[in-house]
Each structure stands twice: as structure tokens, then as C-alpha cells.
Please model this.
Amino acid sequence: MRNPGWGYGLAARPVDARVIGVRRGADRRLLQGVSRSFYLSLRLLPWPMREAAGLGYLLARTSDTLADSLALGVEQRLECLDEFARAVASGEGTPRWSMRVLNAVTDPRERRLLEAAGDCLAALRRLPAVEAGLVREVLATIIDGQRLDLQRFGAPEGASPVALASDAELEDYTWRVAGCVGDFWTRLGYLTMGDRFSKSDEGEMIRLGIAYGKGLQLINILRDMPQDLAHGRCYLPVMDPENHYELAASHRRWMDHASDCIDSGFRYATMLSSRRLQVASVMPAMIAKETLALMRKASWDELRQGIKVPRIKVYVMLLKALCGLRVRDNM
Model:
């Protein structure tokens, strides 16, 4: 389970509301460690949006860490997700992870994030009520998607891969874990900034934002397909997930669909009111477009080794965007 735009990094001290504002060096490292694209976007976001967006980012990565702790059984991961979901929804209490849960997380940054869950939940309680409601709503949708993922693909390691049954199931999954983030981002923008976010119709912006989020998730799925198959998961709706010809054809079809969704992201960015918002929103689309280009040229062995846009290219994209290269030039 992966969220394209929500991540975290390593912090040197307990998390509090200052983390969400990305105000100090150690706080920045908490957000920077995993998702380069979202970290860059968050730094560029106007201040009214930044606190709720950053907090949603950290909470979603916390639930993702719980869902992906392979050293724990499926039932225990589901129990942890349920406990975390209750704490987010109720605004009360803090999950107390057992040493077994903490020791199942081998990445020190991820363990640090779990240990900081209470600080993140305290920050959620301090948000304005309407903003907190948006964060709780998007987290509930994401966690539902993570629970469904575990229930579908909870077979023991080494079992034959299980594939999604239909296009509708894949569309629903990408909505639950990423499309809802596009909806959240847009509604938060209009709530906190009004016309300074966008003068375009809010319903159209929400539609484009949802498509954009789903496209980013599709690219993650397509990029990580060999690794997912090794863990018994096939997100592409195919009859036989062990048939490489069928997989390749499905992979090409969904790359075309992902490309259309990313085009929605570029259109979304052109409809925002300020350069900062445009750059913050377009960076993941620029990285996604480059990732798609790399995947189209990649062999199966290259996919297995991993497709990743070089860091230097990411910063070149950022410089082009900041220096005034028109967003439309990337479409």
C-alpha cells in the first residue's frame, strides 16, 4: 500500500504543531524523508493550507506504515488500523503501540513516526474544526482503502498472486487511497483561501483533483508491479496474473489511462490563482510524466530493478517551474 503524495521523514525531537508548518530543520526532516515530491509541494504551499495539508500527510503515512508492517500478521495490522482510525475519528486518546508492533517496523524513520502518533493527533485536535473535519474525512477514506487492501491480499508470502476482479475495483481502490487526496486538497484550498486558491468552478476543480490523485496512484501501481507480484498482489484486473503477455497488455492500457489522469493534473495547476500554488500542485505531475516516459521504455528486468526519476532531474523540474516555465508547456 502506497500513497503517492503523503510521506514523512526522520525527526530529532517529538512532533508537534510546528512540524506541520515546516518551520525548523529537524521538523523539515520529518516530512522530507520519504516523499520528495510532496515535501517540495508542501514547502511551496501558501501558509493558510500548509498546516492541515502537512498534518494529513503525516497521519496518512502513519496508517500506511501500520498497513505495510509485513512482520505482523494481517489480523494484527487490521487491529492497529482500527485503533488508529478510532483515535483519528474521535479526537480522543492516543494509540499505545506494543513493542511487538514497534519492533516490526525496521525503518527508523517509520518507527519514529509511529512513536510520534500522539503528537500528530494532538495537533489534529488543535486545528480549526472545519479543517480538522476535512483531515478526518480523508483519513477515514484512506484507511478504508488500506483495510480493503489487506483483506484482499492477505495471503501468505509466496502464494500465487491475487488480481483485482475488474476495472471498477481498480478505480475504486485508486479513489480510496489517492483520489480522495485530490478532493481534500481542493476543498481545503477553497476553504482556507477562497478565490485566492482558484477562481474556477469548485466542482470542476474537485473532478480534476480526483483524477490527478488517481493517476499518481496508478503510476505507483504500474511502477511497482514486479515487487507487488512477488508479494502476492496484482492491482491490474487480469484473468491470470502469472501470464506476462496479459500483464504487459494491461500495463500498457493503464499507462495510457494514467497519462490522461496526469494531464488532468496539469490542467488543474493552470486553473490555480498564484504561481506558488501552480508550482506546488504541478511538481508531482512533472515527476509522474517523466516516470511514465521511463516506464514506456523499460524492459521487465528494468521494471524489477525499479524505475525512479533521478534526484537531479527533480530539482531541474522545480527550477524550471519556479523560473517561470509555463505550466501549459508540460501538457
In short: The chain has 16 helices and two strands.
